[in-house]
Design goal:
By secondary structure, the chain is an alpha+beta fold. It has three helices and three strands; from the N terminus they run H-E-H-H-E-E. A hairpin with a 7-residue loop joins strand 2 and strand 3.
Length: 71
């Protein structure tokens, strides 16, 4: 399932930009950037991801799992 793969990747790399996630899945799975961004946004709306502004970089968001992996 794409959502689970993206969530696992973000959990392992957090905090991570959407761009980095999209680049990873483009090279490893051949997924389009828009597809990955849609999956990230869907996970955020479902409450699995938090999004915050990256420090020192206007307009850049970083994503992290809402709940720590150990919980």
């Amino acid at each position: 399932d794409q959502e689970l793969e993206v969530l696992r990747y973000i959990s392992n790399q957090a905090p991570v930009t959407a761009r980095a996630v999209a680049e990873h899945f483009a090279s490893s799975r051949g997924l389009a950037r828009t597809t990955v961004l849609t999956v990230i946004e869907r996970l955020r709306k479902k409450g699995y991801l938090d999004r915050r502004h990256s420090e020192g970089q206007d307009g850049i968001y970083v994503y992290a799992p809402r709940v720590d992996q150990s919980e």
